[in-house]
Amino acid sequence: MSTWSETLQFDKIPLTANTPMPSLALIDLSSWGLVTLVGPDSISYLQGQVTCDVVSLAPNQSTLGAHCDAKGKMRTIFRLFHHQDGLGWFQRQSVMDTQLPELKKYAIFSKTTIEASQDILLGLAGEQASAMIDQLAGGEGDVRPLPNGTAVKIDDQRWLLAVDTETANAIAAKVAGSAILSDDSLWDLYDIRLGIPRIESGTELEFIPQSLNLQALDAISFKKGCYTGQETVARAKWRGINKRAMYLLTGPATHCPKTGDVLERSVGENWRKGGTVIAGYAFSDGEAIALVVLPNDLEEGTTFRLAAEPEGQWLQQPLPYSLDEEA
C-alpha cells in the first residue's frame, strides 16, 4: 500500500456492472512502478531492446510496448513517454525485480542510467479528467510537463501522473473536493474494458506480444530494426504461427478473477482448459469482467467458466478494437 499521503484513504469504489464511472476520480497507482532512463544513449539503447519504435516517439506522445526475451516471450508490457530529463517507463510493480535487471543488462555499453523511480504514480480518471489536467499542467499534447513530473494521457478519460511527493500532495489537495478517491482497481477496470493488457509476475515469459493483442494497440513496429525477440514476433506476423489472442469476457464470480486463473471452455458436453486470465475486476453485484488469453480459432458461441467456480457461465464480449487490422 502506498504511504506517500498520511491523510488520504484510497479504497475500492463499489460499482455494479451498470454503474456509470465517476466523473472525476483520483487513483493511487500503488501496484504500478516507474523506471527512468536518463542519458544521451537512452533512446538508441531502448530501440534495440523493445517492440515499439522509440526513435520516432515524439515528446508529446506515449506508446505501449513490450520487452521480450530472446525467444520473443514478454517480460513486461509498458507505457513509454518522455519524462523530465529522459524517458519514463510505466509497468506493473510485480515484475520490477526480475525485469529491470534484464533491461539494464547491456546498458553498461551505453551512456544511459536506468533505475527504478521514486516518483508517486497517480491516475486522474473520468469525463472531467482532461479539464483538470488543463488546470494542473496547461499546454497541449498527450504528454505534458508538471512541476517535478509529467502528465500522460492514456485514453479519453484517463491521465497518468508521475510526480514527486510534494507535487502529489498539492494535486491531491486541489482535486480532493471534487474527486472520488480510489485504489487502482478502478484503473484496472478501465484497462480491462479498453482491452489493454499487462504482464504480472505470474505471466512473465509466458506469452508473445501478439497473444495479448499488442499488434492491435500500436505497440509493435514491424518496420524498425532488430530488437530482442524480434525474430519470433516477426514470424508470428508473417507466418501466422500465433494461435492465441486476448479476449474480453464477463460472468458471475464470488471473488475477483486473478492473473493466472484458469478459464475452462465448453467442448460438447465436456469442459477443457480454455485460457488464462490476464486481469480481472469484480463488481459489487456478483458480476465480473476479465481479459483472457484464449485460442484464436474458437467457435462462435463458445461458453466458458472459471475453473474455481464451475457453476457460473461466462460469455465473450466485443473488444473495442479489431484483431484483423494490419499493424
Topology:
Layout: E1 25-28, E2 32-38, H1 42-47, E3 62-68, E4 74-83, E5 86-92, H2 96-104, E6 113-116, E7 120-125, H3 129-136, E8 143-146, E9 149-155, E10 158-163, H4 165-175, E11 180-182, H5 185-193, H6 230-238, E12 244-252, E13 262-267, E14 270-282, E15 287-295, E16 304-306, E17 309-317
Parallel strand pairs: 1-11
Antiparallel strand pairs: 1-7, 2-5, 2-6, 3-4, 4-5, 7-10, 8-9, 9-10, 12-15, 12-17, 13-14, 13-16, 14-15, 16-17
How does this model look, in words?
The chain has a six-stranded mixed beta sheet with strand order 8-9-10-7-1-11, with helices on both faces. The protein has two domains: 25-193, 2-Layer Sandwich (Gyrase A, domain 2), CATH 3.30.1360.120; 208-317, Elongation Factor Tu (Ef-tu), domain 3. The two termini are 38 Å apart. Strand 13 and strand 14 (270-282) form a beta hairpin. The chain is 16% helix and 35% strand. With 327 residues, it is α+β, with helices and mostly antiparallel strands. The model has no long low-confidence stretch (mean pLDDT 95). It comes from Photobacterium galatheae. Belongs to the tRNA-modifying YgfZ family. Folate binds at residues 32, 187. Residues 242-307 form the tRNA-modifying protein YgfZ-like beta-barrel domain.
